[in-house]
Structures are given as C-alpha cells and as structure tokens.
Amino acid sequence: MKIINITFPTCLSQIENIENGNIDVFVELDDGFTYTMVVTTPQNYYWYMDKEGLDYIPPYPPDIIVRRLTEENIRQALEAYAEDDAYWMKLYFLSSERNGAFDLDTMNKSLTEIKRRNDEILDAERVTKE
C-alpha cells in the first residue's frame, strides 16, 4: 500500500533525546484508513526496564523500532510496514485491539484448529511408517 500522509501529534523537535524515546504516529494509507502506530528506539526499551527495575519488557502490543526518531527513519520504517498490502502495519495495529481479530476466544479456536490439523498430519505419518 502507499502512504498518503504521516502525522506526528507531537513535533519531533520536542523530543529531548531522539535516540531514547517513543512517539505516536498517524499513518494514512491509500485504503482510506488511518493507522495509529507507536515508533520507539531500542534505547527506550533499556530506559523503561531500568526505570521499572525489570529485565524484560512486559507484554504489550508491538512497536515499530528505529535507531533514532527522525522523520526519515520513521518514514522508511513505515514504508516497509506498508509493503505487501500493509500486512505488518495491520497486524501491529490490530494487536492493540483485544476485542477484534486477536480476542482470546478467536485465538484459542484458531490454535485448536491448527493443533487438530497437525495431529492429523502426525497420525497419517504414523500410519505410513507402520
């Protein structure tokens, strides 16, 4: 998909440290939908773990990671996420909605179906080997 517009609700110039920060970004694609994405830096993860006294990042919808919060880096990352019909952008966006494509019941049903198919394949292989 093609990016029509990228909007920064917070001006990039207001970010104190472009190597340690995160920012919300609104991305309008040519499908007419505007996706809200979080773009962050690797350093921001370290800062957060230090601040919270953790050795891990708690479960949370994924961020788009760039080395520095610059307009060019953010645009390049978003263009990559917009490739292939914006598959990854849609996935990241939908992962923040717990009542949509990733609600627990839907995920459990999908996993049960995958397990059933895998079990069928394994059973067929066992029969073939006997």
Q: Give the end-to-end Cα distance, rounded to a whole number of Å.
A: 50 Å
Over all CA atoms, what is the radius of gyration?
Answer: 20 Å
Average pLDDT over all residues: 93
How much of the sequence lies in strands comes to 15-25%
Percent helix? 40-55%
Number of DSSP E strands? 4
Structural class assignment? alpha+beta
- Helical element count? 4
Bulk shape: extended
Count of separate structural domains: 2
Strand and helix order? EEEHEHHH
Regions with pLDDT < 50 over 5+ consecutive residues?
A: none
Characterize the biggest β-sheet.
4 strands, mixed
Spatial ordering of strands, largest sheet:
1-2-3-4
Plain-language structure description:
This protein has 130 residues and is of the alpha+beta class. It folds into 2 domains: 3-96, no CATH class; 99-130. 46% of the residues lie in helices and 17% in strands. The protein has 4 helices and 4 strands. It has a 4-stranded mixed β-sheet with strand order 1-2-3-4. A hairpin with a 4-residue loop joins strand 2 (22-29) and strand 3 (34-40).
Salient structural properties:
130 residues, alpha+beta, 2 domains, four-stranded mixed β-sheet, 4 strands, 17% strand
How do you describe this structure in short?
With 130 residues, the chain is of the alpha+beta class.
Write the layout of secondary structure elements.
Layout: E1 3-7, E2 22-29, E3 34-40, H1 42-52, E4 64-65, H2 71-81, H3 83-94, H4 104-129
Parallel strand pairs: 3-4
Antiparallel strand pairs: 1-2, 2-3
